[in-house]
Amino acid sequence: MRTTTRRAAATLAAIALLAAACGGGGLDAEIPTADDAQDTDDTDTSDDGDDGDDGDEADGGTIAGDLVGAGATFVNPVFVDWILDGYQATVNPDANINYQSIGSGGGIEQFLLEQVDFGASERYLRDDTLEEARETRGCDAIQFPIVFGSVTIAFHDEFYDGLILDGTTIGDIFERRITNYNAPAIQALNPDRELRDEDIIPVHRSDGSGTTSVFTTYLDLDDEVEGWTLGNGTEVQWPSGTIGGQGNEGVAAAVQQNPGGLGYLNQAYVLEQGFPQAQVINADGNPVFATLEATTVGAEVAEIPDNFQFDILNIGGDGFPITGTAWVFVWECGYDDTTAALLKDFWSWAVTEGGPQAEALGYAPLGPSLQERVLDAIDRINSAE
Amino acid sequence: MSTTLTPTTPPAPTGPGGLREIDAHTRGRKRRSLIARYVLTAGMVIALIPLLMIIWTVASNGVGALGWSFFTEIEPPARREGGGYLNGIVGTVYMVSIASLLAIPLGIMAAIYLVEFGHGWLARIIRFFTDVMTGVPSVFVGLFVYAALVRQFRFGTIMGAIGLAIMMLPIVVRSSEEMLKLVPDDMRFASFGLGARRWQTVQKVVLPMAGPGITTGAMLAVARAAGETAVLLLTALGSLQVVTALSGVAQSSITLLIYDGAKQPFDPGKERAWAGALVLMGFVLLLTITARYISSRARR
Amino acid sequence: MSQTSSEAPGALRVTGKARFGDAFFRIIAYSAGLSVLVVLGLMIGTTTRDALPVFEYQGLWSFFTSDEWRAGFSRTEFTGEYGAFSFIYGTLVTSLLAVVIAVPFAIAISLYINRIAPKRLAKPLAYTVELLAAVPSVVFGLWGLLYFGPTYVRPVMELLNSTLAPIPLVGILFEGPIFTTSYFTAGVVLAIMILPIITAITREVTAQVAEDQVQAAYGMGATDWEVMRKVILRGAFPGIVGGTMLGLGRALGETIAVAMLVGGSQRWGLSLFFGGDSMAGHIANTFQDAAPETVLALIAIGVGLFVITVIVNVAARALVWRIGRVAGDAAL
Predict the structure, then answer these.
(1) How far apart are CA C101 and CA A179, in angstroms?
(2) In A, residues 148-177, which contact B (CB 8 Å cutoff)?
(3) CB spacing of C33 vs B122 below 8 angstroms
(4) Which of C46, C136, C325 has its CB closest to that of B144?
(5) B77–chain A nearest CA distance, Å
(6) pLDDT-based confidence at C111, cuts 50/70/90?
(7) For residue A222, what is the DSSP state?
(8) Does residue C5 lie in a domain region?
(9) pLDDT tens-digit readout, B165-197
(10) Is residue C162 located within the same domain as residue C301?
(11) Counting beta carbons within 10 angstroms of the beta carbon of residue A47, is it exposed (0 to 12), middle (13 to 18) or buried (19 or more)?
């Protein structure tokens, strides 16, 4: 993906710095550090990296078949399946695609800093970020939706499987206004269930995450949820008495490990693990499990604008109310030919052929008409030469 | 100490407690002493439990996922059985090797400076800060490499290796210094007497004599680097694939895979994490035990 | 004859080359020695430079005392709030807990090995305890997270919770709810991790108490225990404190195991069973996902952590210094 020259240069520079550091020349050693620190002080100098990246475009790619991506843990299961079991196993064994699920915030960050070839997140890039990206790279960032998924409430204990919750009670639980499973508000939603006296241990994401963003955006919907004060975003200030887990993986593990645990998780983790999960009341007042069907409803109902900036939350009918989308970010320019070709090939394959693998994990793939539009977007990779 | 002891030892409320007569008070003291012995022995035994428990738990949980494929295949999606840690093993070997090339010669030279030339204030300062450096949190080293290098040159093998080298350096310096000091000055003087220069003495007399000891220091440093995670989290990042590039592409390691494997909820992934821990711990303990053995022989 | 004798020590002949070699050698050794200082200096310089804007933005006092940590997402300016108290608290609580648990054991082991154990057993036992230090920290984390924490530490926490929580004042430390990953879990595993280094120093300093004092005490009819308590421990006291602080330094800086076991809630609580976060743990847990401004804030935490550990380490070294360095403690 990056040219050998750049790698060699980077390596040499790194070794040179170390050598300088080791050489005992105090002054010599200071110089690169000073430059370096300046880069960060002056935080809008992302264009530093840009210069380097424009370089490889000119050089042309020599390392065939390397792609590096980073971002959302929300889609990590399906991405890893696509890469290892799908694309590389059946279509293009020479490809070497690496996806690091470092979190959505990190995905956007690494993408904008041009540290990776593609980024992925459960929140779309807003206009100001796109503007910034354009300034950084000198061309547009392209974003397109890739799959839909639900954010599910998972329990530690099988006993609570199917427990009915609504936005307000979920909000109260995560703001610690409800701390016990036998709270009257929960009982009221579940008149036929015998509830136990047990402390609730809410588990949230400790890293910035699109899952959190989807979840809190839902809780922040004024007409549906009362009393939510934490706002929305990829990271919010959770109150005392909640526990953090890193990544969907971390939350799932923390829910497993803590009696009384209750956490919000991507449905793939819940389905795969057979976690007991809540039914959440949707806009039409129906309690719904986060099944593939309930997620697909969301994907179909959504009206998706041309710029692909949309949310699909709190739908009615049989749809699950807390449903999110995963976006992939790529650039309109600046890739070497191999990287661009591989990017196009992989993502086109994922959009057209990746459906069954996605569904097996509980993600709703793109519908036919949306597929066309997304393929058009994928075609724009490296088109602005 | 002994002055305070003299009056306190026989607080003697029991009157004429001679050494022969075993009165109630003395019996009490004896009993207390015996109890103390038991308590201390119990403390010793309890302290050994965690080590045995770790070895046993890691071995029994890890052996299941351990097979030939563990060393020849990369890690599949965490939900799926089989596969291995090839990507991590390659990364660890790659990064630790480079780190060793950077840190070990440098560390030995620094130790030579301290022992052969270092008599002034500078040597004392270096010695002191080497000690300080052994206590620097690994995450801080990671932050440094990230701030100084990764931001410009991306995550990658060389970044991880530099981070590991910084972790290894003080260990190599310290242990090599100990070993060089063990070489008797007589040997040096004998060498000088034959007309050898300082560097010739070091090269032909001191280093060969201290060789086994220095090797152990290097081995301990390698063991430490192989088990390091925090530094790599901030410099190598991790990878699904086997990475051979020296720079520019994020690299994996056994420890990073264990870290990820432990935190995710799927059993096959956890089993591989145990297996990875078994491999890593086996390697590190073997290295450590060998190093200790060599060094105890060298000291003799 | 002269032929052969000049063969072997030939390299030792004083030639111009050799003299030049000596100067060259000296410079190389000197630079290598300096490299340690340079690397350390670079580390401090680079990170401090990055951390300063954060301290300026948040205010130094507020950075260390406020518990409002709200990561920002900007690449150009500071927008978040960076009060690191929750993490500082977590670091201190877990480390102190670890020391409180580890020190009595370290003393017991030292006394046992030095005074009670059969001579043949002493060395192997000492090595075995030190072997614990070789276990990689991520293995401690894995073991603590998946096995030791849920199966052993959690029941202990439940027991302490049910017995000690009702006690006024002290009880607040043992209040529920109980988190499986908590200060307590991290502290217990940390205690195991720092046991070897504290033991190594303690063993060394208790062994160094002058034998004639010991014999004198025995001569006056002191029992084993009295000798240990009144002669050995008293004589070795400064060294034991030094070893303890060295262990404390390790505990403060320990990253991965704590990151996996401490909870990660970005909050703090008085209860030991609270799932909080530590400085190193917070850096490790959130670094990958952080926006540039938050990365700087994390570096600022790193600088704070560095300062704390260096102070503790320097104090420890100063105390242990006069008894000489313990062989191999760097590798512990």
Answers:
(1) 32
(2) none
(3) yes
(4) C46
(5) 6
(6) very high
(7) T
(8) no
(9) 999 999 999 889 888 888 888 888 898 888 888
(10) yes
(11) middle
Class for domain B66-78+86-299, per CATH? mainly alpha
As for the ipTM of the complex, it is: 0.90
Q: Is the pLDDT of residue C1 over 80?
A: no
Q: Do residue B47 and residue C113 have CB atoms under 8 angstroms apart? A: no
Q: Where in chain A are all domains bearing CATH 3.40.190.10?
A: 6-148+326-378, 150-300
- Would you state the CATH architecture of domain A6-148+326-378? 3-Layer(aba) Sandwich (3.40)
Architecture of domain A150-300: 3-Layer(aba) Sandwich (3.40)
In a domain, C11, yes or no: no
Q: Which chains touch C (3 or more CB pairs under 8 A)?
A: A, B
pLDDT at B139 over 50: yes
A245 lies within 8 A of chain B by CB: yes
Residues C205, C124, single domain; the answer is yes
Residue type, C302: G
Domain that holds residue C58: 16-70
The rounded distance, in Å, linking the Cα atoms of A375 and C82 is: 42
pLDDT digits (tens, 9 = 90+) for C189-232: 999 999 999 999 899 888 888 888 888 888 888 888 888 888 89
Cβ contact, residue pair B171, C29, below 8 Å: no
Using one digit for the tens of pLDDT, what is the confidence trace for B16-41?
545 556 678 888 888 888 999 999 99
Q: Which of C30, C131, C228 sits opposite B117 (nearest CB)?
A: C30
- Where along chain B do its domains lie? 33-63, 66-78+86-299
Judging contacts by C-beta atoms under 8 Å, the chain B residues touching residue C34 are 126
Question: Would you say B261 and B272 are in contact if contact means Cβ atoms under 8 Å apart?
Answer: yes
Same domain, C193 and C56: no
Residue B229 CA to residue B282 CA, distance in Å, equals 17
H or E element, residue B270: helix B267-299
What is the distance in angstroms between the Cα of C306 and the nearest Cα belonging to chain B? 7
Structure tokens at A118: 């593609």
CB-CB under 8 Å, A48 with B152? yes
pLDDT above 80: residue A14: no
Interface mutation vs chain C, best among B140, B145, B290, B293, most C CBs within 10 Å = B140
Tell whether the model's pLDDT for residue A31 goes beyond 60: no
Residue with tokens 């996605």: A358
Average pLDDT of chain C is 87
